[in-house]
Design brief:
The protein has 13 helices and 16 strands. With about 425 residues, the protein is of the alpha+beta class. Bound molecules: histidyl-adenosine monophosphate.
């Protein structure tokens, strides 16, 4: 019996899982501060939500979905992405008001696994539903940028483009089909097949993308309204101090985009997995799913790749503020109530659950990546504990009052 998880999936344990926890917390906190409520929705959905929403011509739908028939004969798909289901849930709610929603959870795509390309991977994301103002695009793009800033991911580039509204896209499509038809003998079979059905997807083709530098670009076919929208998004980003580069080749691999599209690229990672997040506006998606008109914009960020880009440097960071050590079993109850008090006051604290030698308890403190050890022993008679900084080995005797202990830890040992 192998204990390994299925191909392309991971068990994430400490210390790496501590990085995950921090990143997920930072995102949740930031999204809340920007006014995004939480949405929780099924991990599987009816297959046609993705076929229609994401698009039949996309790689995700054609090659990567985990689709199966359930025992009731329904075609079910494990969600390969969030946006189509979030829009479905919004339509199901019957709500007529704008909603700002945030989510986090696993997504599933049957891809060829490699570092940063997993079959089960995590996304966090936001969707701003029911709003067509460029200010919504700016807010969403800025939120992602502030998130990467807050977790300390350096070397980030934001790539920006616009696909225009349906009228602009129609004009662009005609020109693109003519261009692709001219060069079709040079194109892969896959791309040739897409000329008539979904020519924009040729931009996704790794083999053919580089042949498109002279192709008509969506940005050159914008209607006046779409051009004004794009200009306002760029002006808003400038005002917010969010840097970006325009990439006229960026079309994103999903069919639902209109107008703004963007990608967050970690320049430190290999090109194969350096897109650490992406998103855009999808004003037609709700209608494509059979609902009313709901303009919307959002992004999803790939946590597996982000954690990879952060590297292991922070895995040595303390996971506990303190580990309480019982030097004298007669004082175990005192130690237990000290742990309880410190936890109540917000510290991350733990202790061994049963009698162990002091040496074994110090080892446990190290193993658990505690910042300091608090020894409950004879000094308790004098109303004191010994506290040791496990990094420097420096020891001090301080008051056993929880407030004094917290002051000591938070001041890095300067307050006694
Ligand atoms: P996406 O570009 O397909 O967009 O995925 C977003 C991010 O998820 C990617 O940039 C990448 O970081 C991560 N990701 C995708 N596939 C994998 C994989 N196999 N392994 C690891 N990470 C992966 C969307 O999913 C859209 N729903 C984004 C959006 C939201 N657009 C509007 N709202």
């Amino acid at each position: 019996m192998s204990f390994r998880p299925p191909k392309g999936t991971d068990d994430i344990l400490p210390p790496a899982s501590r990085r995950w926890r921090r990143v997920l917390r930072v995102f949740d906190d930031l999204a809340e501060r920007f006014g995004y409520d939480l949405i929780i929705y099924p991990v599987f959905d009816s297959t046609d939500i993705f076929e229609r929403g994401v698009g039949e011509g996309t790689d995700v739908v054609k090659k990567e979905m985990y689709t199966f028939e359930d025992r009731g004969g329904r075609s079910i798909t494990l969600r390969p992405e969030a946006t189509a289901s979030v829009v479905r849930a919004y339509l199901a709610s019957g709500s007529q008001i704008a909603m700002k929603l945030a989510y986090a959870g696993p997504m599933f795509r049957y891809e060829r696994p490699q570092a940063g390309r997993r079959r089960q991977f995590w996304q966090v994301g936001v969707e701003y539903l029911g709003e067509d103002s460029p200010a919504a695009d700016v807010e969403v793009i800025e939120l992602g940028y502030r998130f990467y800033e807050a977790i300390g991911l350096t070397g980030l580039e934001i790539q920006l483009n616009t696909l225009g509204d349906p009228a602009s896209r129609y004009a662009h499509r005609e020109a693109l089909v003519a261009f692709l038809t001219d060069i079709q003998d040079d194109l892969s079979e896959d791309s040739r097949g897409r000329i008539a059905t979904n020519p924009l997807r040729v931009f996704d083709s790794k083999e053919d993308r580089h042949k498109l530098s002279a192709a008509p670009m969506p940005v050159d076919y914008l209607s006046p309204e779409s051009a004004a929208h794009y200009a306002a998004v760029k002006a808003g980003l400038d005002q917010a101090g969010v840097p970006y580069v325009e990439n006229p080749l960026l079309v994103r691999g999903l069919d639902y985009y209109t107008r703004t599209v963007f990608e967050y690229v970690a320049t430190r990672l290999d090109a194969a997995q350096n897109a650490v997040g992406g998103g855009g506006r999808y004003d037609q998606l709700a209608e494509v799913l059979g609902g009313r008109h709901v303009p919307a914009v959002g992004f999803s960020l790939g946590i597996d790749r982000i954690v990879l880009a952060l590297g292991e440097s922070e895995d040595g960071a303390p996971a506990l503020d303190a580990f309480v050590i019982v030097a004298d079993e007669a004082r175990r109850e005192l130690a237990v109530s000290l742990v309880r008090k410190l936890r109540e006051q917000g510290l991350r604290v733990d202790m061994e659950p049963a009698a162990r030698s002091v040496k074994a308890q110090f080892k446990a403190a190290d193993r658990r990546a505690a910042h300091s050890a608090i020894v409950v022993g004879d000094e308790w008679e004098a109303g004191e504990v010994t506290i040791r900084d496990l990094d420097t080995g420096r020891e001090a005797r301080i008051s056993c009052e929880s407030d004094a202990i917290i002051r000591h830890i938070q001041s890095g040992g300067k307050a006694t």
